[in-house]
Amino acid sequence: MKELTTLSLDHNQLKEVPISCFSKLKKLTFLDLSSNRLQRLSPDMFSGLGNLERLIVENNPIRCIAPRSFHWGPKLIAISLKNCSLTDITIGDFQPLDQLVLLDLSANELTRLDPPAAIPPANLSLDLTGNPWACDCRLNNLLTWVKEHKIHLYSKEEIVCAFPKSLKGEEATSLLRSQICPC
After folding, report:
1. Which pLDDT band holds residue 183 (cuts at 50, 70, 90)?
2. InterPro entries given for it (predicted)?
3. Which tens digit of pLDDT belongs to each residue from 126-168?
4. Which of 7-16, 78-87, 173-182 has the lowest mean pLDDT?
């Protein structure tokens, strides 16, 4: 078992992952915990997975991502948190993941996403589609950060405003700053 590189625990009705459950799986590079009933992510869940490159946690009712939940994974290149009912998260939660290439936050309940102060990894791609975005000054800050750091947005035409009412249904990435942030 210590030689295991891929582990798929998807569709197992898992409610939690015991602390240090994976600590002896030092060679694990792929972990799929999708379509379970996980409600919380914490750094202790993943301790010992320093070689993990891909983490799939999509389709879980995650309510809480504890600070530093991803700081154990210096080799992580892809994280999928698609369809996890997330309402509040910051991109800073995923730093210092210098190798991160894909962060999938699609199909959640995010209305805002604050950009971090730190410089993101080179070649980072974000999937932010399917969230009910509040098109305001905070979103403008995120879009400015994305543009300044040349971050690739998947299906940017599907990043659509849900709020305010006057912008509902508008493609957020095509709006002018004066439309989003009139102040």
Report:
1. low
2. Cys-rich_flank_reg_C (IPR000483), Leu-rich_rpt (IPR001611), Leu-rich_rpt_typical-subtyp (IPR003591), LRR_dom_sf (IPR032675)
3. 999 999 999 998 888 899 999 999 999 999 889 999 999 999 9
4. 173-182
pTM, full prediction: 0.92
| Nearest-angstrom CA–CA distance, 88 and 111 | 8
Query: How far is Cα 30 from Cα 27, in angstroms, rounded to an integer?
Result: 9
d(Cα 39, Cα 89) in Å, to the nearest integer? 14
Distance between CA atoms of 38 and 183, rounded to whole angstroms?
A: 41
Read off the amino acid at residue 122: A
Q: What is the pLDDT of residue 25?
A: 93
Give Cα separations from 173 to 10, 43, 97, 147, 160 (angstroms): 34, 33, 26, 10, 8
- Rounded CA gap, 17 and 102, in Å? 24
The string of pLDDT tens digits covering residues 47-65 is: 889 999 999 999 999 988 8
